[in-house]
């Protein structure tokens, strides 16, 4: 199975001893049911196992509806589905435990026409690398001072310094006290506290 960054975040979350009552915030809710890519369902399973909460944020109301379907399948209650741009939501939070950033898509040639239309109709824009970089930079700028001790930020679709979603967000985090713990599953994960 070709996992994405949600697997990387899980591996680092599970290194913590006390998970009860913690919250995962996911920006970029489940959209298509491709093997290994349903981060929302994946995080719900993790939250159910460890008595945690999931907040899933997406600009597309259809994706928010998918969150409710995933919860219904699992009879999972401890979640919120929020239809909003990730940047806007994160500006208004006060603190976070675990953050998974898989929002505004980067440009490639395989985006469906349906997906392209969503960007035009909801955000009045097109899928571009510059838009993706700006969105993810705005999100980390909004939260970099809001982490608890040992908070984690995971950015999905990180391929190189010039390809993927983290091209401007990652340098910002590194310049502002966050340490890159690992790159794996085409993702990068950061901590605001150096490991012992």
Account of the 3D structure:
This protein is an alpha/beta fold. The chain has one domain (5-155, 163-176): Vaccinia Virus protein VP39 (Rossmann fold, 3-Layer(aba) Sandwich), CATH 3.40.50. Helix content is 38%, strand content 24%. The protein is built from 7 helices and 9 strands. The longest helix has 15 residues, at 129-143. The radius of gyration is 16 Å and the shape is globular. The termini are far apart. 41% of the residues are buried. The mean pLDDT is 92.
Strand order of the largest sheet: 3-2-1-4-5-9-8
Total domain count: 1
The main β sheet shows up as: 7 strands, mixed
Cα separation of the termini:
32 Å
If you compute it from the alpha carbons, what radius of gyration comes out, rounded to the nearest whole angstrom? 16 Å
Descriptive terms for the model:
Rossmann fold; 7-stranded mixed beta sheet; two-stranded antiparallel ribbon; 38% helix; 196 residues; alpha/beta
Quick rundown:
38% of the residues lie in helices and 24% in strands. It is of the alpha/beta class and 196 residues long.
Secondary structure elements and pairings:
Blueprint: H1 5-13, E1 23-27, H2 39-50, E2 53-58, H3 61-74, E3 79-83, H4 86-91, E4 96-101, H5 113-123, H6 129-143, E5 147-156, E6 158-160, E7 163-164, H7 169-175, E8 179-184, E9 187-191
Parallel strand pairs: 1-2, 1-4, 2-3, 4-5
Antiparallel strand pairs: 5-9, 6-7, 8-9
């Amino acid at each position: 199975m070709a996992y994405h960054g949600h697997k990387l975040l899980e591996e680092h979350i599970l290194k913590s001893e006390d998970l009860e009552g913690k919250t995962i915030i996911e920006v970029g809710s489940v959209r298509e049911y491709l093997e290994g890519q349903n981060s929302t369902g994946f995080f719900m399973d993790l939250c159910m196992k460890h008595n945690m909460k999931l907040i899933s944020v997406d600009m597309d109301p259809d994706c928010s509806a998918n969150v409710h379907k995933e919860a219904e399948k699992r009879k999972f209650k401890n979640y919120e589905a929020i239809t909003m741009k990730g940047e806007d939501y994160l500006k208004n939070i006060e603190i976070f435990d675990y953050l998974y950033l898989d929002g505004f898509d980067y440009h490639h040639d395989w985006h469906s026409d349906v997906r392209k239309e969503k960007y035009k109709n909801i955000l009045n824009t097109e899928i571009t690398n510059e838009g993706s970089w700006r969105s993810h930079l705005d999100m980390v700028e909004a939260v970099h001072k809001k982490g608890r001790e040992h908070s984690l930020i995971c950015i999905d679709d990180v391929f190189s310094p010039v390809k993927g979603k983290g091209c401007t967000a990652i340098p910002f985090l590194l310049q502002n006290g966050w340490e890159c713990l690992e790159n794996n599953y085409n993702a990068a994960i950061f901590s605001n506290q150096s490991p012992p």
